[in-house]
From TrEMBL:
Domain HTH cro/C1-type: 28-79
Organism domain of life: Bacteria
PROSITE patterns: HTH_CROC1 (PS50943)
InterPro entries, per the entry: Cro/C1-type_HTH, Lambda_DNA-bd_dom_sf, MLTR_LBD
Taxonomy of the source species: Bacteria, Bacillati, Actinomycetota, Actinomycetes, Mycobacteriales
Protein name, UniProt field: Helix-turn-helix transcriptional regulator
Organism: Rhodococcus globerulus
Pfam families given in the database record: HTH_31, MLTR_LBD
Length: 279
């Protein structure tokens, strides 16, 4: 694990906080990210980051390595090196891509005035900007399947986001059809198979949609987000694909300029982000 610890420290040192949407702060001694900041971005404890950098933690999981690669803005080659020196098989073309490369990360960093999230083809939320968290809740507080949009839609009561009755039916049907399309493209991806199996056992509604064998890609919708800070905001949701991004989806929420919804989003950009900072 010596090489693993060495590259982890080196890559942490080169990432500046403003590159990952964090305030630079004052009185910093760290050349790049602090251990606390990397731990927050990767969703692990600070103690675990310390043990990884000291070579005292062994057998990190592929899921953790993916989270570290995204937090550290690694290229595909650097990510693969991280996997190899950790003794974990590198992602293969048969596996569903879950790595967010630097170019897509820069898109998210630059689009600070609109909520943006990056999803895998299986609808796992991989990356988001602060305004996304202010609007929809902080994803860093979620774990396991709760990072998956399809799982949350079909197994949890969602009082934060609503569609029209027709829009809700179409949204749910499109999600299942999109997931089936991912299964067709990545039939050997074990986490994807596990997700589908769990959904089939946990949700009769999902199972009913799955039986229809509809295949499609979810591209856009309109929804209303109920926020505690500024009230209801109706947004247009568009799903974009970045060429060469490995089948990732960039989800962008926008509102009509000059509208009441735009004014609320402007207010949320200030008040909502302050709430996140104080948590």
């Amino acid at each position: 694990m010596d090489e693993f610890a060495r590259v982890l420290r080196a890559w942490r040192d080169r990432v500046q906080p403003e590159h990952v949407g964090l305030p630079p702060g004052t009185g910093r001694r760290a050349r790049g990210l602090r251990r606390e900041e990397l731990a927050m971005l990767a969703g692990v404890s600070v103690d675990y980051i310390v043990r990884l950098e000291q070579g005292r933690a062994t057998n990190p999981s592929a899921q953790l390595l993916g989270a570290l690669a995204r937090a550290l803005r690694l290229t595909d080659e650097e990510r693969d090196h991280l996997y190899r020196v950790a003794g974990v098989a590198t992602p293969t073309p048969a596996s569903l891509p879950r790595h967010v490369g630097p170019s897509v990360q820069r898109i998210v960093d630059r689009l600070g005035d609109v909520p943006v999230g990056v999803f895998s083809a299986a609808h796992d939320l991989l990356l988001w900007n602060p305004l996304w968290a202010a609007l929809l809740g902080d994803p860093s507080l979620l774990a396991g399947f709760k990072h998956n949009l399809v799982w949350r839609v079909f197994t949890e009561e969602n009082t934060r986001v609503t569609h029209t009755a027709v829009g809700e039916d179409e949204f749910r049907a499109d999600l299942v059809a999109d997931l089936r399309s991912a299964v067709g493209r990545y039939p050997d991806d074990a986490p994807l198979r596990d997700l589908v199996d769990r959904l089939l056992s946990e949700s009769d509604e999902f199972a009913a949609h799955w039986e229809q064998a509809h295949v499609a890609l979810h591209r856009s919708s309109r929804k209303t987000v109920h926020t505690r800070t500024v009230g209801d905001i109706t947004v247009d949701c568009d799903v974009l694909s970045a060429p060469g991004s490995g089948d990732l989806r960039i989800v962008v929420y926008t509102v009509a300029p000059g509208s009441a919804d735009a004014a609320k989003l402007d207010l949320l950009r200030v008040a909502g982000l302050q709430d996140l900072t104080h948590h």
